Protein backbone atom coordinates (compact mmCIF):
# COMPACT_ATOMS: atom_id res chain seq x y z
CA UNK A 1 0.00 0.00 0.00
CA UNK A 2 1.47 3.34 -1.05
CA UNK A 3 1.15 5.82 1.78
CA UNK A 4 3.02 8.87 0.58
CA UNK A 5 3.71 10.92 -2.47
CA UNK A 6 1.09 11.71 -5.08
CA UNK A 7 2.03 10.59 -8.61
CA UNK A 8 3.25 13.33 -10.90
CA UNK A 9 2.96 15.94 -8.17
CA UNK A 10 -0.83 15.67 -8.15
CA UNK A 11 -2.60 15.96 -4.84
CA UNK A 12 -4.04 12.64 -3.70
CA UNK A 13 -7.77 12.29 -3.09
CA UNK A 14 -7.00 11.15 0.45
CA UNK A 15 -4.43 12.93 2.63
CA UNK A 16 -3.36 12.74 6.27
CA UNK A 17 -1.71 15.66 8.03
CA UNK A 18 0.20 14.44 11.05
CA UNK A 19 3.35 14.10 13.10
CA UNK A 20 5.22 10.82 12.97
CA UNK A 21 5.15 9.90 16.67
CA UNK A 22 1.68 11.12 17.69
CA UNK A 23 -0.53 8.28 19.00
CA UNK A 24 -3.57 10.05 17.57
CA UNK A 25 -1.98 10.20 14.14
CA UNK A 26 -0.78 6.61 14.42
CA UNK A 27 -4.32 5.40 15.18
CA UNK A 28 -5.60 7.03 11.99
CA UNK A 29 -2.77 5.54 9.93
CA UNK A 30 -3.40 2.11 11.47
CA UNK A 31 -7.09 2.37 10.57
CA UNK A 32 -6.30 3.35 6.99
CA UNK A 33 -3.80 0.50 6.75
CA UNK A 34 -6.35 -2.02 8.02
CA UNK A 35 -8.88 -0.69 5.51
CA UNK A 36 -6.28 -1.02 2.74
CA UNK A 37 -6.76 2.60 1.65
CA UNK A 38 -4.11 4.52 -0.26
CA UNK A 39 -3.35 8.03 0.94
CA UNK A 40 -0.74 10.75 0.92
CA UNK A 41 0.92 11.50 4.25
CA UNK A 42 2.19 15.00 5.05
CA UNK A 43 4.44 15.47 8.09
CA UNK A 44 3.63 18.67 9.99
CA UNK A 45 6.07 20.83 11.96
CA UNK A 46 3.88 21.84 14.89
CA UNK A 47 6.25 24.70 15.71
CA UNK A 48 5.62 26.09 12.24
CA UNK A 49 2.19 24.82 11.20
CA UNK A 50 1.38 24.78 7.52
CA UNK A 51 -1.29 26.95 5.99
CA UNK A 52 -3.05 23.75 4.94
CA UNK A 53 -3.27 22.56 8.56
CA UNK A 54 -4.48 25.94 9.81
CA UNK A 55 -7.14 26.08 7.09
CA UNK A 56 -8.17 22.47 7.60
CA UNK A 57 -8.45 22.60 11.40
CA UNK A 58 -8.98 26.28 12.27
CA UNK A 59 -10.60 25.48 15.64
CA UNK A 60 -7.94 23.34 17.34
CA UNK A 61 -5.07 23.70 14.84
CA UNK A 62 -3.98 20.15 15.68
CA UNK A 63 -3.19 16.90 13.93
CA UNK A 64 -4.38 14.49 12.75
CA UNK A 65 -6.46 15.85 9.92
CA UNK A 66 -7.86 13.64 7.18
CA UNK A 67 -8.56 15.43 3.90
CA UNK A 68 -10.87 13.54 1.56
CA UNK A 69 -11.56 15.09 -1.82
CA UNK A 70 -10.42 18.46 -0.48
CA UNK A 71 -12.73 18.32 2.57
CA UNK A 72 -11.11 18.04 6.03
CA UNK A 73 -12.16 15.77 8.89
CA UNK A 74 -10.63 16.48 12.33
CA UNK A 75 -10.17 14.58 15.63
CA UNK A 76 -8.94 10.99 15.50
CA UNK A 77 -12.07 9.22 16.77
CA UNK A 78 -14.23 11.22 14.37
CA UNK A 79 -11.83 10.35 11.56
CA UNK A 80 -12.05 6.63 12.35
CA UNK A 81 -15.84 6.73 12.21
CA UNK A 82 -15.73 8.74 8.98
CA UNK A 83 -13.36 6.24 7.35
CA UNK A 84 -15.68 3.37 8.23
CA UNK A 85 -18.79 5.14 6.93
CA UNK A 86 -17.23 6.63 3.80
CA UNK A 87 -15.94 3.26 2.62
CA UNK A 88 -18.80 1.12 3.94
CA UNK A 89 -19.92 0.05 0.49
CA UNK A 90 -16.59 -1.17 -0.81
CA UNK A 91 -14.53 -4.29 -0.18
CA UNK A 92 -12.65 -3.15 2.90
CA UNK A 93 -12.45 -4.49 6.44
CA UNK A 94 -15.02 -2.70 8.66
CA UNK A 95 -13.56 -0.92 11.66
CA UNK A 96 -16.81 -1.38 13.56
CA UNK A 97 -18.71 -4.70 13.67
CA UNK A 98 -21.13 -4.54 10.77
CA UNK A 99 -23.61 -7.20 11.85
CA UNK A 100 -24.59 -6.34 15.43
CA UNK A 101 -25.55 -2.88 16.80
CA UNK A 102 -24.64 -3.98 20.33
CA UNK A 103 -21.14 -4.99 19.21
CA UNK A 104 -20.74 -1.63 17.46
CA UNK A 105 -21.82 0.17 20.62
CA UNK A 106 -19.33 -1.87 22.67
CA UNK A 107 -16.54 -1.05 20.23
CA UNK A 108 -17.34 2.67 20.48
CA UNK A 109 -17.48 2.47 24.26
CA UNK A 110 -14.03 0.88 24.57
CA UNK A 111 -12.53 3.22 21.99
CA UNK A 112 -13.75 6.13 24.10
CA UNK A 113 -12.49 4.42 27.27
CA UNK A 114 -9.00 4.13 25.81
CA UNK A 115 -9.10 7.75 24.70
CA UNK A 116 -10.65 9.39 27.77
CA UNK A 117 -9.75 7.09 30.67
CA UNK A 118 -6.72 4.94 29.91
CA UNK A 119 -4.60 7.50 28.10
CA UNK A 120 -4.86 10.29 30.72
CA UNK A 121 -3.98 7.79 33.46
CA UNK A 122 -1.03 6.34 31.53
CA UNK A 123 0.18 9.84 30.70
CA UNK A 124 1.15 10.31 34.38
CA UNK A 125 3.56 7.37 33.98
CA UNK A 126 4.76 8.79 30.68
CA UNK A 127 5.61 12.14 32.28
CA UNK A 128 7.10 10.80 35.51
CA UNK A 129 10.77 11.65 36.06
CA UNK A 130 11.58 10.08 39.43
CA UNK A 131 11.33 6.55 40.81
CA UNK A 132 8.73 7.70 43.32
CA UNK A 133 6.57 9.31 40.65
CA UNK A 134 6.87 6.25 38.46
CA UNK A 135 5.85 3.87 41.23
CA UNK A 136 2.81 5.99 42.08
CA UNK A 137 1.81 6.40 38.43
CA UNK A 138 2.16 2.68 37.73
CA UNK A 139 0.00 1.80 40.73
CA UNK A 140 -2.64 4.18 39.38
CA UNK A 141 -2.68 3.00 35.77
CA UNK A 142 -2.86 -0.78 36.43
CA UNK A 143 -6.49 -0.64 37.71
CA UNK A 144 -7.41 1.29 34.57
CA UNK A 145 -6.06 -1.53 32.37
CA UNK A 146 -7.94 -4.23 34.30
CA UNK A 147 -11.36 -3.43 32.74
CA UNK A 148 -9.78 -3.75 29.28
CA UNK A 149 -8.51 -7.24 30.13
CA UNK A 150 -11.94 -8.24 31.47
CA UNK A 151 -13.62 -6.81 28.37
CA UNK A 152 -11.26 -8.80 26.19
CA UNK A 153 -12.24 -12.03 27.92
CA UNK A 154 -15.97 -11.30 28.13
CA UNK A 155 -16.44 -9.99 24.61
CA UNK A 156 -14.35 -12.69 22.96
CA UNK A 157 -16.24 -15.44 24.85
CA UNK A 158 -13.61 -17.87 23.72
CA UNK A 159 -14.62 -17.56 20.07
CA UNK A 160 -15.53 -14.02 18.95
CA UNK A 161 -12.44 -11.94 18.11
CA UNK A 162 -12.07 -8.72 20.05
CA UNK A 163 -9.46 -5.96 19.98
CA UNK A 164 -8.07 -7.67 16.89
CA UNK A 165 -7.71 -11.06 18.55
CA UNK A 166 -8.76 -12.65 15.29
CA UNK A 167 -9.63 -11.36 11.83
CA UNK A 168 -11.64 -8.39 13.08
CA UNK A 169 -9.40 -5.49 13.93
CA UNK A 170 -11.58 -2.48 14.54
CA UNK A 171 -11.80 0.96 16.05
CA UNK A 172 -11.07 -0.27 19.58
CA UNK A 173 -7.97 -1.93 18.17
CA UNK A 174 -6.85 1.16 16.29
CA UNK A 175 -7.26 3.31 19.39
CA UNK A 176 -5.42 0.84 21.61
CA UNK A 177 -2.69 -0.15 19.17
CA UNK A 178 -1.74 3.46 18.49
CA UNK A 179 0.00 3.69 21.86
CA UNK A 180 1.67 0.26 21.91
CA UNK A 181 5.05 1.50 20.70
CA UNK A 182 4.97 4.24 23.34
CA UNK A 183 4.02 1.77 26.08
CA UNK A 184 7.01 -0.37 25.12
CA UNK A 185 9.39 2.59 25.24
CA UNK A 186 8.07 3.94 28.55
CA UNK A 187 8.21 0.43 30.04
CA UNK A 188 11.87 0.17 29.08
CA UNK A 189 12.77 3.52 30.60
CA UNK A 190 10.73 3.15 33.78
CA UNK A 191 11.57 -0.51 34.37
CA UNK A 192 7.95 -1.70 34.47
CA UNK A 193 5.86 -3.98 32.26
CA UNK A 194 2.38 -2.59 31.89
CA UNK A 195 0.92 -5.36 29.70
CA UNK A 196 2.40 -8.08 31.86
CA UNK A 197 1.61 -11.59 30.60
CA UNK A 198 0.79 -12.87 34.10
CA UNK A 199 -1.54 -10.00 34.97
CA UNK A 200 -3.00 -9.25 31.53
CA UNK A 201 -2.54 -12.39 29.39
CA UNK A 202 -5.24 -11.51 26.87
CA UNK A 203 -3.99 -8.00 26.17
CA UNK A 204 -0.34 -9.08 26.14
CA UNK A 205 -1.04 -11.78 23.55
CA UNK A 206 -3.20 -9.41 21.50
CA UNK A 207 -0.48 -6.74 21.47
CA UNK A 208 2.13 -9.22 20.22
CA UNK A 209 -0.17 -10.54 17.47
CA UNK A 210 -1.33 -7.15 16.36
CA UNK A 211 2.14 -5.63 16.11
CA UNK A 212 3.11 -8.53 13.84
CA UNK A 213 0.48 -7.59 11.23
CA UNK A 214 2.31 -6.36 8.12
CA UNK A 215 -0.04 -3.44 7.47
CA UNK A 216 0.41 -2.25 11.06
CA UNK A 217 4.19 -2.59 11.10
CA UNK A 218 4.41 -0.48 7.96
CA UNK A 219 2.92 2.58 9.68
CA UNK A 220 4.28 2.17 13.21
CA UNK A 221 7.17 4.52 14.04
CA UNK A 222 10.60 3.06 14.71
CA UNK A 223 10.92 2.31 18.43
CA UNK A 224 14.51 3.59 18.54
CA UNK A 225 13.38 6.95 17.18
CA UNK A 226 10.54 7.04 19.68
CA UNK A 227 12.99 6.23 22.48
CA UNK A 228 15.28 9.06 21.37
CA UNK A 229 12.37 11.49 21.34
CA UNK A 230 11.13 10.32 24.73
CA UNK A 231 14.55 10.71 26.35
CA UNK A 232 14.63 14.23 24.94
CA UNK A 233 11.29 14.97 26.59
CA UNK A 234 12.54 13.60 29.92
CA UNK A 235 15.70 15.74 29.76
CA UNK A 236 13.58 18.86 29.27
CA UNK A 237 11.12 17.95 32.03
CA UNK A 238 13.90 17.20 34.51
CA UNK A 239 15.67 20.46 33.66
CA UNK A 240 12.42 22.36 34.07
CA UNK A 241 11.79 20.73 37.48
CA UNK A 242 15.31 21.60 38.63
CA UNK A 243 14.77 25.27 37.77
CA UNK A 244 11.45 25.49 39.63
From TrEMBL:
GO terms for MF: glutathione transferase activity
Catalytic activity: RX + glutathione = an S-substituted glutathione + a halide anion + H(+)
Main location: cytoplasm
Keywords, sorted A to Z: Cytoplasm, Transferase
All copies of domain GST N-terminal, residue ranges: 12-91
Subcellular location: Cytoplasm, Cytosol
Protein EC: 2.5.1.18
Pfam families in alphabetical order: GST_N
Main EC class the enzyme belongs to: transferase
Residue stretches in coiled coil: none
GST C-terminal domain: residues covered: 100-233
Biological-process GO terms, alphabetical: glutathione metabolic process; toxin catabolic process
Cleaved signal peptide residues: none
GO cellular component assignments: cytosol
Its job: Is involved in the conjugation of reduced glutathione to a wide number of exogenous and endogenous hydrophobic electrophiles.
Similarity annotation: Belongs to the GST superfamily. Tau family.
Name under which the protein is recorded: Glutathione S-transferase
Gene name for this UniProt entry: gb05125
Amino acid sequence: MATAGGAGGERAELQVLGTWSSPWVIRVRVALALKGLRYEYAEEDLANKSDLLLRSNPVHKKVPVLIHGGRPVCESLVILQYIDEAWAGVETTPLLPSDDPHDRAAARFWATYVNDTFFPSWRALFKSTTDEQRATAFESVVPVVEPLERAFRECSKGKKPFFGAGRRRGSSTSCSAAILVWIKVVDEVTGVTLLDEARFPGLAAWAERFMAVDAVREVMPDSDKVMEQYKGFLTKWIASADRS
